[in-house]
Design a protein that fits this description.
Largest sheet: 2 strands, antiparallel
Distance between the termini: 20 Å
Protein name: MarR family winged helix-turn-helix transcriptional regulator
Order of helices and strands: HHHHEEHHH
Number of strands: 2
Mean pLDDT: 94
Low-confidence stretches: none
Number of domains: 2
Helix content: 55-70%
Structural class: mainly alpha
Radius of gyration: 18 Å
Number of helices: 7
CATH class of the largest domain: Mainly Alpha
Length: about 140
């Protein structure tokens, strides 16, 4: 199983390396992880970011502050608990996250054009299954 995991990881890194968008802005890995967390989970605040990044609340707060200053996040009050601040992505934050975590649609389209219908369906189903199972793990 370990060999299979290593092989799948190699495939994934090859795919991302060859098909990712060129990165236009200077953005740290920590900022990308924060944006991903805010995008994928609901009700994220500084405490959740600290836990996710495994850093202190103060360190997470500084990361959030810098991300907020770049215009990637906005703060809103939790409607159920006015004391809690919830983070949301801005349109700019969504764009930066997309460019730093997604595959370039044009490049991916060219690859898909090279596949026959059966191969395209196989790839789609395999990724759909992996996505579903990954969501169940966390």
């Amino acid at each position: 199983m370990k060999d299979k995991v290593m092989l799948l990881n190699q495939y994934w890194t090859d795919i991302y390396f060859h098909l990712h968008y060129l990165h236009r802005e200077k953005i740290s890995h920590q900022v990308v992880r924060i944006l991903q967390l805010v995008d994928k989970k609901s009700g994220v605040g500084v405490n959740e970011i600290a836990s996710y990044l495994q850093v202190s609340h103060n360190t997470a707060s500084e990361h959030v502050k810098r991300t907020f200053e770049k215009g990637y996040l906005v703060k809103v009050r939790d409607p159920l608990d006015e004391r809690k601040v919830i983070l949301s992505l801005t349109e700019s934050g969504e764009e930066v996250l997309y460019r730093n975590t997604s595959l370039d649609e044009e490049k991916l389209g060219k690859v898909l054009e090279q596949l026959n219908d059966d191969e395209e369906e196989l790839v789609e189903q395999a990724l759909k299954i992996l996505s579903k199972r990954a969501k169940e793990c966390t």
